[in-house]
Amino acid sequence: MRQAHIIATCKQTRFHLLDDKAASEIDVEGLNIIVKAPSAPDDPSKPKQRGKSKPKAEGKELITDAHLRLKAGVHYGLIGRNGTGKSTLLKAMAEKLIPGIPHPTRIAILQQSDNEVNEEGTEEVENVKNKTVLDYVMSGDGSRNEIMRKVAFLSKSFETDEPLQPVRAIRKIRHGQSENQLFLAHKNASLKSGARGFQARKDLKAAEANLQAALESLEQPKEDIDAEAVKTDTQDAMEMLHDLQSQLEAIKLTDIEHQARQVLIGLGFKESAFSKPFLTLSGGWRMRCMLASILIQNPDVMILDEPTNFLDLLGVVWLENYLQRLRESSETTIVLVSHDRDFVNAVCEEIVILRDQKFTYFRGNLSAYEKDFEARKLYWGRMKEAQERQIAHMEATIRDNIKIGKKTNDDNKLRMAKSRQKKVDDRMGVQVSATGGRFKLNRDLAGWHTSNRAEIEVPTDEKGSTMVFPAATELRFPGPLASLESVTFRYKANEQPTLSDIDFVIHMGDRVGIMGLNGSGKSTLIKLLAGEMLPSKGKATTHSRLKIGYYSQHSIDELQEQCRNDPETTALGMMMKEVDGAFSEGELRGLLASMGLQGRTASDVPIAKLSGGQLVRLAIARTVWSSPQLLILDEISTHLDFHTVTALATALSSFNGAILLVSHDRFLVRSVVEGKRDAEYKLDDDFEGVEEEEDETQSRRRTVYVLKSGRLQEQQNGVEQFEQSLVKRVQKMLS
């Protein structure tokens, strides 16, 4: 399958400095990023377009004339709605497609999926085929790997009795260096003009000559190499080997192995798993390995795209503390994307907002940004209202003066009306300077401009599409929806039980949250409740009329698997098959629209081209279309931006059925299960929590459990109690 590619341009393409030094600071003006669909093969029957003008790059514009500014050593949180281009921007940075990023800059990136292992082909699989978990993590640093490869290559050449082997080795390394220099010279020559361009083209010719000389030297016949050349090249090989070995000693591989072990333990691995083959791991554990390999590097820029997606809460808390300590001990710049609000708040010092294809910056964490946004919205809203009242009064006065002036031939009234009209036209707008003082034209709006003052713009909320869940079907008679009585479950008869003596019941309207570490048996428990498995001992019962809506943590994987079998299927087409005539097309369009998949997105866009957030919305629609009385939701917030998580929390809060939520997202459990309006985050006005429950007769049962050692433990203080226990555990691990 042909892949779409990214086209990145910026104003600095002609004037930035030579790409000869790495930089932790990035400052790129006029950034444009376009995602271009893969071009179809040329049709020979169609005539070719003639003309000198270059065709304009066609594709979807994600970022236009933006200023990307990242200061060295600062931890940034990148926020924006699903589909705005966050992941594309990060990929363009990591692959140095943005011209203003110096090529030697070391950038390490964790992407949202492990496609680089699954889809890069047999060569990549061969590279990790025989690697253990620990080996894979330690081999993540490309620059260190290159040094080790050269050391091994040169050392091997000296182990043979053939005197020309070191000569061949050093010449092959020189040839590789010349190829790299030619690549950089091509890049510089294509980006510069004027005097810099002239020098860049001279450097390009020199690089081409160097590569040709290196190639001729490499291909020189054995009999043509004289003794002096052998002596010189052998000496150069020895000096290079000594220099590379000194660099390796400075890196301290023993310290790296120790750090790798500590990071793996922090991310949930047991020491017994360090020697397991990497390729035998599941997708989630592979992602943890990739995260560990990024964390033990010391890059100039570290990019983490949804690093918490496959971590349990212990791993999330550990990563929070690790990155906080990294801020104090390293100059690495970090760019982080995460839907976990608490995580972003704990880690990030500044926020980068990607909105309307531009970047805006805020110094402070996400919570401070949202408070500042609300304050600015209130301030500018009041100012605009006051000015609109002032303008309305002045315009009424102008009309009266014109009427009186014309009626009485009073020139003073007409001059007064004209003067006031000029004030309305030229002097209305922003009345304060950028520093909050009084606006002065010659200071605050110097230069040529079309109007004297900028128009007052009130910041508007940027929210994900709202979600509306269909009401649960009424039950004909009351009773518990599902219950477990003294349930024990074993996967194998001779193994320790995964669940031991579990008693659990859920009624209509209940809100129950289940938290716990990965592998504690949460998914097993909900599969027993959903009727997908039978207990080894005890009794699992459900209401005879019960309809369950089960969102599995593998729901997105199932959708993607179906896309592979039928790549042209749309969301609407899949739902039509799913309901099998129970709904009309119009009703299904309404359901998908209520989940945020409107119009052509639902009917024309193949599922294979939907974003992760859109796939979650489709999976939710598949879960709720039958109006179930019980929603079982297993890690539903993965792949969603935090705007959508907020919309999801609001929709779940007003659902009249029961909800069983399994999640590591502290905000989601606090809002949906505990019903709390968190002071740190603004929830929609439609949110129905504890404050909206008028009296005890209408109050819901709200309980948070932790599954540990096969048993359910109720948390009297909810999520906070579980989080505090994990914080203490992490502090011991890091100490």
Automatic annotation (TrEMBL):
Alphabetized Gene3D superfamilies for the sequence: P-loop containing nucleotide triphosphate hydrolases
Residues annotated as domain ABC transporter: 45-381, 482-734
CDD domains reported for this sequence: ABCF_EF-3
Pfam families: ABC_tran, ABC_tran_Xtn
UniProt key word ATP-binding: yes
Organism ancestry: Eukaryota, Fungi, Dikarya, Ascomycota, Pezizomycotina
SMART domains: AAA
Organism name: Aspergillus sclerotialis
A GO molecular function held by the record: ATP binding
A GO CC annotation given for this chain: membrane
UniProt superkingdom: Eukaryota
Cell location: Membrane
Keywords linked to the UniProt accession: ATP-binding, Nucleotide-binding, Repeat
Region called Disordered, residue ranges: 36-60
The protein, known as: ABC transporter
Membrane topology: Multi-pass membrane protein
